[in-house]
Amino acid sequence: MIGQDGVYLITGGLGGLGLQVARWLVQEGARSLVLVGRKAPGEAEQATITELAEIGAQVLVVAADIAEAIEVDKVLATVGTLGRPLRGIVHCAGILDDGMLAQQQWEQFLRVLRPKVAGAWHLHTKTLTQALDFFILFSSAASLIGAPGQCAYASANAFLDTLACHRRARGLPGLSINWGAWTQVGLAAAEKVRGERLAQRGMAGIAPEQGIAILQWLITNLSSYAQIGVLPLDLQQWRHFYPKAANLPLFADFEQQQEIVHPVSRQATLLEELHTAPQGERVELVSTYIRARLAQLLSIDVARIGTQIPLSSLGVDSLIGLELRNSLEDQLNLVLPEMLIWKYPTVTALTELVLISIPSSGSGKDIGSPRLPVGEVDTPNPNESGGNTLSKLPSVAERAVQPSATKAPSALSLPATTTERLSAREATHLDKWIIRFQPRPQADQRLFCFSYAGGGAALYRTWSKDLPEHIELCAIQLPGREGRLSETPITRLSLLVATLAEVLQPLMDRPFAFFGHSMGALIAFELARQLRTSYSLSPMHLFVSGRRAPQILRPKMVLSNLSDTELVQYLQERYHGIPQAILREPEALQPLLAVLRADFALVETATYTSAAPLTCPITALGGEEDESVKPEELLAWCEQTTSAFHLEMFSGDHFYLRQVQSALTQLLGRVLTAVCQQRR
User: Fold this and answer.
1) Rounded to a whole number, what is the distance in angstroms from the first to the last CA of the chain?
2) What span, in angstroms and rounded, lies between the C-alpha atoms of 358 and 354?
3) What's the structural domain count of the chain?
4) Active-site annotation, residues
5) pLDDT tens, 183-224?
6) Residues 433, 355: one domain?
7) Is residue 539 part of a domain?
C-alpha cells in the first residue's frame, strides 16, 4: 500500500508521534513526505529529517495552522509541487488544555477543538477528489472511555471517530484509532506526570515500536473498519479509580469475559466495613481509607499525609479532589458536596463529614459518629511523615472558631523591625513558608519557587519528578492561601522580601536558585537584591517567568479596589476567568478574591529602585501566546545582570508552565546542573 510513487502527508508532523510515523513510512518505501507543523523544526526534529533524507526520502516541512482552510490550501499546493499524487494522510495534530467542564471558557475549549476538528474537516473536504489509499486519524482513548478534565479533548477526538465513519459510509478510506498513551513520544509523554497518572489508574503506555507495529497491522488487515481502540487497559484497576465507568455499556461485554476468564473475588466496600466495625474503630477506618486513597492519587508515601495537614498544601487540585469524591461516593453510596476539598480541607474534616453523613444500616445500627472530642492539636509538618490520632482532634465546627495550638518544628527569631506587623508566629515558622513535596536532604542545590498572584505552593507539587536528584525544590507558601488560609496576606513587597530573606537565609547553606512566575518573578528578583544587601548572598541563577523586566514601567491598573463583580469580570476576560465551580460557592470564592486583592495590592504599590545589576545569570521565560507580556519586555531582563542572559519561549499563554511542565522543569534541571559543574 505504501510506495515510492506517492506523497504522504502528516499533520502534527514535527511532533513525536508524527516523526515516528514519518520514519516508518520511509522504512516501508515512501520517498515523498510533507510534514505539517505550527513552527519550523527545532534541532532534534531537523536531525530526524536529515536522517530520512540520507535514506533517500524527500521531506518537505510546511509551517501551517491546519485549522484554517486557506492554510490547508497552502499545504496541498506544496504537495502538488512534488509531481506525484497524494496517496495517504495521517492526522496526528492535537493539543491538550485540561480543566473541569464547569471551569472551561469557550476560548480554552475551542483551542483544543481547532486542530482536531477543523483540521480534520479541511483535510477531508479538500481531498475528496483524490484517490487516497488511507486517511488515518489519530484519535484518543479519551473519546472512548472518558478522562477527568478532558471534556474538550474527548469531544475533539469523538469528532474524528465520527468523521471516519462518515468517510466509510461514502466509500472513502477512513480509520480513526483511539490510542492510549504512548511512552517516550506524544502528549502524555510530554507531561511525565500525565503518563504516570494514567499508568497508575490502569492504562499502561504504548511503546513507540509497539504503536508503529500496530499501526502497520491495522492498515494492512482492518481496511473495512472505521474505528478501533488500541489501549492496554486493566479494567478492574480503571474501574477502581473511576467507579462510574462500571455503568458504561462499552464495558459490559468486557466485564462478563473477564469474570469468566479471571474470576475476581469481590472486596467489601468501605460502607460494608463500617457497618460491621465496632464504634471505636470507625474513625480510624475512614481516616485510613482517605489517606491511602490520597497517597495513590498523589503518588506519595501515605506517611506524609497527616490528618490535619491542609490537602491543598500536599498539591491536591480540583481533578484529584473530584477523583477522591468519586471514590468516597462509590464506597459509601452517598452524594458528597461538589467543592469537597474546599469545605473539608483536611483528612480529619473529611472523616468527620463521612461519619455524620452515613445513614444507619438496615438493622437500625447507627453508623454516624458523635462529634470528635476537642483536644490540643499537634499539627504535623507537611514536610515530615506521620499524623495524629483522630480521637484527639476537634470537630469541624469547633476548629472554625477555636485556633489550634501548634508545635513549630523550627523557630527563627526575627527582629521586630523586619517583621513589622507580622506576628512572631507568622514570621518565625520556617516550615510554614517552605513546602518540600519531595524532601532531598542530601541535595547539593536548592531551587526556591514563587507562584503567581492568587497561587500557592501546590503549583509545584510534581515538579521534583523531572529535576535531578541533586536539586531539592522548595516551594514558597505565602500567608493567606492553601495551608495558610487563616493568616493575613502581606500587601507590601518590601515587607515580604525582608521577611523572606530573614526566614530563608538558614536554608541558603548550599548553592541555590530562584524561579518565579508573574508576581513570583518580581518577588524572586527583589529577594535576590535584598539578600545581596543584607547578607552578601546571591542565587547561582535567577529564572523569571511571565513577567516584564522591572525597569519597564506601565500605567498601573488598580485591581485591588475593584468590587467583587468587577474583579471577577476582569479575571474572566484577561485570564480565562475563575472556575465556575468556585463562582457558585461563596465560601470558596471569597478567600480567593481576598488573596488576589492582597497580591494585586502588593504589585500595585511596589516601586522599582534602580541599583547595580545582579551578578548571577538570568533566564527569562515566557509563553508565545501570552498577550500580557511581550518578548521584548522579557528580553529587557538582560539589563538586570552582569552575567549571562538567556531568553526561552514556550508554546502557550500566560500560564504556559502548566502545559509544558515537563519540558520546563527539564530545562531548569539542565541549566542548574551546568552551573553546578562550572563551579567545581
Assistant:
1) 57
2) 6
3) 4
4) 518
5) 866 554 444 555 566 666 667 778 888 888 888 888 887 667
6) no
7) yes
